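Lecture 7, part B: from sequences to assemblies.

Below are the input chains for today's worked example.
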Amino acid sequence: MSTSATFDPLEFRKALGTFATGVTIITTRADDGTPLGLTVNSFNSVSLDPPLVLWSLANSALSFDAFRKAGHWAVHVLAADQEELSARFARRGEDKFGGLDLEQGIGGVPLLKGCAARFQCRTASQYQGGDHLIFIGEVLAFDRDETAPLVFHGGRYAHATRRDPAGIKPRSAYLAGSFGEDFLGYLLGRSHFRFFAQIRPYLAEAGLSDEEFYVLASLTLKPQMSAEDLAIGMQGVLDEQSQAAVQALVDRGLARIVTPAPSTAGTAYELSDDGRNLALRLIAQAKSVESQVLERLGHADAVVIKSLLNRLLAVIDPQAAVLWGEPPR
Ligand SMILES: Cc1cc2nc3c(=O)[nH]c(=O)nc-3n(C[C@H](O)[C@H](O)[C@H](O)COP(=O)(O)O)c2cc1C
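Predicted structure of the full complex, as C-alpha cells:
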C-alpha cells in the first residue's frame, strides 16, 4: 500500500486508471469566437434536481483560460466508433474542428454529431482542485442516441457490454462435466453453423456449395487473383477444395482464367459479370441475415462481438489480416 508520502506518480495514475469511465469531449467558444474543445474522462453526474454535472480541467491545458471565462460549454459522451475523434481532441492546441460537421448550441457552443449523448451546460460554479479546475455545470438541454459508448480503462480505449445474465448455466449437466458449453470451440462452432445455416438456402438457390461461395466471395476482393493468392487465402479454410471450387465456378461461367496474368507469374482468376452480380447478390443476402441476428443482439453488443472476434482472429490466424492486401478502389 502506497501512502501519500511515498507516492509513485505513475503508479498513482495506474491505480486511478482502474476506474473505468466513459469518454467525453467538452467544447466551448472563446471570446474571440474560436471553437475550443478537449477530451475529458473526469466527467460525472452530480445532481438530478437541479440537473448538475462536473468535470475537471488541467491548469496546464491550452484551453484553460477560455473555459475559465466561458459561460457555456457542452459535454459530448462519445460513441464506441468515435475513438479517432477522442484522439483528435486529446491533442494539444491544433485546430481540432477542421472538417467536422458541427451544430450551434446554446451560447454559440459548437456541438459535435454522432455522440451517445450531449449535455449543454451553463457554468454554475468552479472550484480549484490541486492542479485542476473543477467545473460544475447546470444542464440546460440534452439529447441522446441508442448507441454503444466508448470506454476508457487502464489507459486504453475499451468496450462496454452487458454481462451474461447471472442465470446462464450449462443446459446439459452432461456437458458441464465434459468440455462445457463455455468451451470456445463449442461457442464459435455452434454460432458459425447456426449462422451459416441461415445463409445456405440462398446458396442452394444459386446452386453453390459452401466452398464455391467462399471462393466466389473471395474473388470479389481483387480485380484479379492469382491461384497462389487464392490458395493462401483459403488455407486452413478450404485446403485442397479451393482448386475444385474455382474450377466449378469457371465451368459455370462465373469466373474465368486470365491468361497471361499481367501482375502474376502463374494462373490468375477473375469474376465474369455474371459471377460478380451473383457474388454481390449473395453477399447482400448474407448481410441481411447478419443484420437480423445483430438486431436481436443489440447494436452495442454487435460492435463488441465484432471487435472481440477480430482480436481473436488476429491471435488465431494472424495471416488473415494481411492476406488480401488493399481492397480494389
Ligand atoms: C481519455 C482521455 C481523458 C482525458 N481526460 C482529461 C480530463 O478529464 N481533464 C483534462 O484536463 N484533460 C484530460 N485529458 C487530456 C486532454 O484531452 C489533453 O491534454 C488536451 O490536449 C488538452 O487540450 P488543450 O491543451 O488544447 O486545451 C484526457 C485525455 C484522454 C485521452
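Note for the exam: The chain has two domains: 8-159, 174-323. Keep this in mind when comparing with the next example.
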